[in-house]
Amino acid sequence: MDFNAIVKPLVLAVVFSIIGMLVFVAGFFVIRKLLPFDVHKELEVDQNTAVGIVIASFILGLAFIVGMAIHGG
Fold it and tell me: For residue 43, what are the CA distances in angstroms to 33, 40, 49, 52, 60?
């Protein structure tokens, strides 16, 4: 069994996971700055479902973009 066949995909998975998380965190800070209200207050205190849907949409969209960038499509 070739050791490189196991290690290379494992290393790439870890690297892309770290890059994806960094992109997500940076994107979340950007969306917090773009929205004209406090996201934490709207979600936690006011329990605003619409804001939760907007944040969830952002997360799914960003995950799709990162996934396609990794896949190369």
Answer: 15, 5, 7, 7, 18
